[in-house]
Please model this.
Amino acid sequence: MSEPDVFQLADRALARVVAQITPAQWEIVLPTSFTTRVRPEPPSLRTLVNYHAYDDAWVPDMLAGLTMDEAGSDKFDGDLLGQDPVASFEAIVDRACAAAASVTDLDVVAHLSFGDYSVREYFWQINQFRALRAHDIARVIGVDPELPRTSCRASGTS
Model:
């Protein structure tokens, strides 16, 4: 399975977990295992999912070889989830997966905020992050954390 296929698998797995978040769960505060150096306080589930939306929103521009400055460094700042967080997240995932599906050269450079890496390396960084978060969020909201075993090309399928 190629890196773009693994990305789609991991990103769709995360979207499937997000789709199972109930309205009452969006504002729950996550366990301390979700803290970071930048964010020492545990985030709400909505804050965490919005961060993943932000990360995913950058995927098409990064795969297109743009720098954050060329793309507009603040274009994804703020709340990306809006009034319908599940639908908003799914739309962002759809765009990221479409961009991943169109990758033909894994050795071109992706200009990330923390340095330049091959698209192949970029995929491995983001693939692991999405798969782990899908598992972690599933456990927090009480749904099956098992990840799918096959790639998914279309929204909501496996």
